[in-house]
Write a structure and sequence with these properties.
- The chain has about 150 residues and is α+β, with helices and mostly antiparallel strands.
- The chain has a domain of about 90 residues: Immunoglobulin-like (Sandwich), CATH 2.60.40.790.
- Helices cover about 15% and strands about 30% of the residues.
- The protein has one helix and seven strands; from the N terminus they run αβββββββ.
- The protein has a four-stranded antiparallel β-sheet with strand order 1-2-7-6, with no helix packed on it.
- The longest helix is centred in the first third of the chain and has 20 residues.
- The N and C termini lie far apart (about 70 Å).
- About 10% of the residues have low confidence.
C-alpha cells in the first residue's frame, strides 16, 4: 500500500520559525515587570508606511497613533524621506498603582526610506487624520511618465 505525503512549502516553514523566534523573545525577555536598560533608546523601526504612486504624485501614509501632529517632523533630502517624532507618556503616579505590562511606546523615533523617484519637496502637503499621516509628494516633471504617440507608417 502506498501513502501520499504532502510536503509543506519552504516559505511556510520559514514563517513558522519566525513566529517561534518572536515568541521566544517576547516570552523570555519582555515579560511583565522586566524593564529595558536605562541606556536603551527606543527607535520605532516598525513604523508602518504605505507608499503609492499615481500619474502626478507619490502618496505616503504612516500610522502614528497617539502622536500629536505638532510633534512630527518630516523632511526630504537627496531622495530620502525622513519622519521623526517624539511621544511622551505621563509619568507613573503612585495612586494609580504599578504597571504589570506597559507596551505603549514612548520616546523619540525616526523612520527614513529612499523614495522610488524624485519629488518636489517644496510643493509637498501633509495632513493628519485619526492617527494617519498622509503626505502628497508631487513628482518632478522629469519623473512623470511621457506619452509617445504612435504614427501609422
Amino acid at each position: 500500500m502506498r501513502y501520499l505525503v504532502r510536503r509543506t512549502s519552504p516559505m511556510r516553514e520559514i514563517d513558522a520559525w519566525q513566529k517561534a523566534i518572536d515568541r521566544f523573545f517576547n516570552d523570555h525577555f519582555f515579560r511583565a515587570g522586566r524593564t529595558l536598560p536605562a541606556n536603551w533608546q527606543s527607535e520605532w523601526s516598525d513604523l508602518a508606511l504605505d507608499i503609492a504612486e499615481n500619474e502626478d504624485n507619490l502618496t505616503v501614509e504612516a500610522s502614528l497613533p497617539g502622536i500629536n501632529p505638532d510633534d512630527v517632523e518630516i523632511s526630504v533630502h537627496d531622495g530620502v524621506l525622513t519622519i521623526k517624532a517624539e511621544v511622551q507618556h505621563e509619568e507613573e503616579k503612585e495612586e494609580e498603582g504599578k504597571y504589570y505590562l506597559r507596551e505603549r511606546r514612548s520616546g523619540a523615533f525616526q523612520r527614513a526610506v529612499r523614495l522610488p523617484l524624485e519629488v518636489n519637496a517644496e510643493a509637498a502637503e501633509a495632513t493628519f487624520h485619526n492617527g494617519v499621516l498622509t503626505l502628497t509628494l508631487p513628482k518632478v516633471e522629469e519623473a512623470k511618465p511621457k506619452k509617445i504617440a504612435v504614427k501609422a507608417a
